[in-house]
Amino acid sequence: EQKIDNLWFFAGDNEYISTMIGDNNEDTLLQISTKEMTSSSLDYAITKMYEFIEKIPRKVRTIGLSEIEEDEQSEYYQKLAEEIISSLIVKNIEIENPERLEEELIKIAGTPNSEFERDTKEFVEEILKVSSLEIEDLGIASTDLFPIVANYIKEKGSQDNFLKELMENLRLPEDDAIYLLEGLEVSKKIVQDREKVRFAQSETEKTDRKKIDRRRKKIFYGI
């Protein structure tokens, strides 16, 4: 809806563009061109466009990897590893043993992100840094929150106990404690993802005995 409103705004008094914009929120704007602007070429292009539109699913849902068949998961991990190696080569990073590296990357990709949770000061500090907006919003000092989160990570405690700790130690109302807990949980998953990326980069460096520029770590983000 916002995009359609923006189209109306930019169209202004241009009648040509205005006539191409629909009257309801279900319409969108498509543009086609052909090598030869003849009626037959345009008709063919329009037909193909409609065929494409009809193939678009009306509804889609997110599917987790755990819902995919095991052989399809393996195929996905292999393609992901191949893509990472290909990207490294494009960046002029020579791979001495691509087969061995591919095996290692497939293994890492198949490891649940939760396995990369670390009971370290740095891991907890990164969680708090990612959650800085929620923490500041509630007027809490990170130094007061640190020992609570650190103990939660160390003991692998339940969310119910964690919520209780937040309410009692920080004297937060239940709604505020739930808001903070949800933010911290999201941040924890983000840091787990980052740790997995860092581990993949580290293992790549070990396998190939070459240092990879930290600026190129985005190559591993898909893992």
Keywords:
mainly alpha, 223 residues, disordered N terminus, extended
The whole-angstrom Rg is 25 Å
Distance between the termini: 34 Å
Give the mean pLDDT: 80
State the helical fraction: 55-70%
**H/E order of the elements?**
HHHHHHHHHH
Overview in brief:
63% of the residues lie in helices and 0% in strands. It has 223 residues and is mainly α.
How would you describe the overall organization of this protein?
The chain contains ten helices and no strands. Helices cover 63% and strands 0% of the residues. The chain folds into two domains: 2-55, no CATH class; 69-223, no CATH class. Helix 5 packs antiparallel against helix 10. With 223 residues, the protein is an all-alpha fold.
Write the layout of secondary structure elements.
Layout: H1 2-11, H2 15-18, H3 39-55, H4 70-90, H5 98-109, H6 121-130, H7 132-137, H8 142-155, H9 159-170, H10 174-208
